[in-house]
Specification:
single chain; mainly alpha; about 280 residues; about 75% helix
Length: about 280
């Protein structure tokens, strides 16, 4: 079997989709000044919700909507903690990751009697979600850089005081885009479930954090982030084929080694939003 083939490129596109969706969501929230490292947990919550709703309702479409809703709810929770209560953004995101992992183990045990896994359930064709993801990324590239709403988003992340003076509601803007980030993570989790057909607690497998790396490599722009996600997806697809030639213990490390190497090369070269991670306090007139 040849390692390099058209099938490998197609598999890379499939594996890149959840990474690209997380990168897109993170682009929105970080452009608004909110760091969200809880993307891993939000994607896992989306996958778990898809499994539960698809299993009991038999409707993969309803499960997809529910996954997006749960992701958005977790995004709102993160926004309340980090924007309104001014908690440390990283701590808030890490708390969401831990909360979801524990909750997933508990729920799968209660519902199915299996700790961290689910039985098979009806799924959508994963290529429908691949197409939806590509459309959302192209649309977001135009939205962020070619529309007045995108300009307001960027101003909030760069100069929230100036945005406030211009009449833009900084808190509401950060809330909206953090919720959108959560919804896109939920969609990424739904993709992972539909791609596999069942839930396992390790199915996100660091793709949330790799999505953040893709956003950094893409310099906070949707289309370059998609290309970075495709690179990570390609390496992920390649390591699966290399397992026929080298021990899996080594091939499985390839995507994570690439993440570290690429990030080391791009850190310091990206244009980070100036107000990123800094709580905004509105001046009282």
């Amino acid at each position: 079997m040849s390692v390099l083939s058209l099938e490998l490129l197609v598999s890379a596109l499939r594996l890149a989709t959840p990474i690209a969706l997380v990168a897109l969501g993170e682009t929105y929230s970080e452009r608004a000044g909110v760091i969200n490292v809880g993307v891993e947990g939000m994607a896992l919550a989306g996958a778990l919700t898809t499994a539960i709703v698809a299993y009991f309702s038999g409707s993969p479409t309803l499960a997809l909507v529910a996954a997006i809703g749960v992701g958005a709810l977790l995004g709102a929770l993160h926004a309340v903690w980090s924007v309104y209560l001014r908690a440390d953004h990283v701590v808030s995101g890490a708390a969401i990751n831990l909360l979801v992992v524990g909750f997933a183990l508990f729920l799968t045990r209660v519902i199915w009697g299996w700790r961290g896994t689910s039985p098979s359930a009806p799924t959508l064709n994963a290529w429908i979600l691949v197409g939806a993801g590509l459309f959302l990324i192209a649309l977001s590239q135009v939205y962020i850089f070619r529309t007045p709403w995108g300009l307001r988003l960027r101003v909030v992340g760069e100069h929230p005081r100036a945005a406030d003076t211009a009449g833009i509601n900084v808190y509401r803007t950060q809330l909206i885009y953090t919720v959108l980030n959560g919804a896109l993570c939920g969609l990424a989790g739904a993709f992972l479930f539909n791609n596999l057909g069942r839930f396992t607690d390790g199915m996100v497998g660091g793709r949330g954090f790799i999505g953040i790396a893709a956003m950094v490599v893409g310099n906070y722009r949707p289309l370059p982030a998609l290309l970075a996600a495709y690179l990570f997806g390609f390496v992920d697809a390649l390591q699966m084929r290399l397992q026929a030639y080298i021990p899996s213990q080594f091939s499985l490390m390839l995507p994570y080694i690439l993440t570290v190497v690429v990030l080391a090369g791009f850190l310091g070269r990206t244009k980070v939003p100036k107000a990123l991670g800094k709580p905004y306090v509105k001046e009282r007139g």
